[in-house]
Design the sequence.
């Protein structure tokens, strides 16, 4: 298939501006949604008539990302901490009133994760070149192993849209106070070095950094031999890689995300789906994919389309289901006892 992509400066500039606008819209929408979710939970807890502020804070700590609020919170419950996250955690643990919780800082409130180790053009270019090289080698290895394949490997194209994305942010992650198991989209996943929200450069040279993505990508390769029962039986994958996984409240992986060079091999209303292209997919580890999520099969032809969908979770929030889930396993209760313990009084 001939590549007709226009790479003139004007088209590159337009693509970059489109991505910038999509990310700005995403950040605003995610922050507004998360702040409203927190405020609604605060208002809900205030209606319970609890006698003390500590009792109220105990209730709000049931939600992921707020488990360290107040002096009774669990330090570091959100995972390993950079200096910035450590400072935020200290501020959250100083909260003494439920009414102050909506104003406490949280590094994921707008759904964006930064990673200082990959914030320069040279490093982003190095990463994208490594992605192309590793994916090309993986596709060729698969073709050599299964020589009866109907179509030659061809050239795996660069991830041009991903390049636009990485010029602005390195990953997006749902704060997921709902503990729904939503996966992040983190295309520089598992690269080691400094954490995503560290402020300072880690000083590694490009040669050292070049080996990190290569090794990581080789570990999370996603070739079409893995397609059946994963992203869907109607999708043919040439190559790609896992970009994140999200766990439910029991610690089990609920959703994976992946960036795949693929096409749909069955006819549908959009003939473009038959073309090979880089796309984002969300899927579970079962055999029922694709599953509907947020009213949509979670497969996206563009990162901008994905960002719009990813920030739509409030439109599909089922609070009755969420309350039932938290009654099953509230803070301080380690089994599905359905008893009258303190935790099961949660509304």
Sequence:
């Amino acid at each position: 298939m001939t590549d007709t992509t226009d790479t003139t400066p004007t088209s590159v500039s337009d693509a970059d501006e489109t991505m910038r606008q999509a990310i700005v819209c995403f950040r605003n929408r995610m922050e507004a949604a998360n702040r409203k979710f927190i405020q609604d939970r605060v208002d809900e807890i205030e209606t319970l008539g609890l006698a003390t502020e500590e009792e109220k804070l105990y209730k709000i700590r049931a939600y992921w990302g707020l488990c360290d609020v107040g002096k009774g919170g669990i330090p570091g419950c959100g995972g390993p901490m950079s200096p910035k996250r450590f400072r935020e955690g200290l501020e959250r643990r100083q909260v003494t009133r439920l009414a102050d919780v909506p104003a406490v800082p949280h590094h994921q409130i707008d759904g964006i994760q930064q990673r200082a180790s990959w914030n320069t053009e040279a490093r982003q270019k190095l990463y994208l070149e490594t992605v192309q090289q590793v994916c090309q080698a993986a596709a060729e290895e698969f073709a050599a192993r299964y020589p009866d394949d109907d179509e030659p490997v061809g050239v795996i194209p660069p991830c041009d849209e991903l390049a636009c994305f990485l010029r602005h942010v390195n990953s997006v992650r749902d704060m997921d106070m709902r503990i729904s198991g939503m996966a992040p989209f983190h295309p520089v996943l598992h690269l080691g070095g400094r954490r995503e929200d560290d402020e300072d450069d880690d000083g590694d040279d490009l040669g050292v950094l070049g080996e990190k993505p290569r090794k990581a990508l080789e570990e999370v390769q996603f070739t079409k031999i893995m397609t059946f029962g994963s992203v869907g039986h109607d999708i043919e994958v040439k190559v790609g890689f896992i970009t994140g996984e999200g766990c439910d409240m029991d610690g089990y992986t609920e959703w994976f995300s992946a960036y795949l060079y693929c096409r749909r091999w069955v006819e549908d209303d959009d003939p473009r789906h038959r073309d090979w292209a880089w796309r984002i997919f969300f899927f579970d580890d079962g055999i029922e994919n694709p599953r509907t999520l947020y009213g949509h099969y979670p497969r996206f032809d563009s990162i901008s389309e994905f960002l719009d969908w990813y920030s739509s979770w409030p439109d599909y929030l089922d609070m009755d289901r969420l309350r039932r889930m938290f009654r099953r396993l509230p803070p301080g209760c380690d089994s599905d006892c359905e008893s009258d313990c303190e935790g099961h009084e949660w509304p």
Notes: The chain has three domains: 15-109, 111-316, 319-347. The longest strand covers residues 235-247.
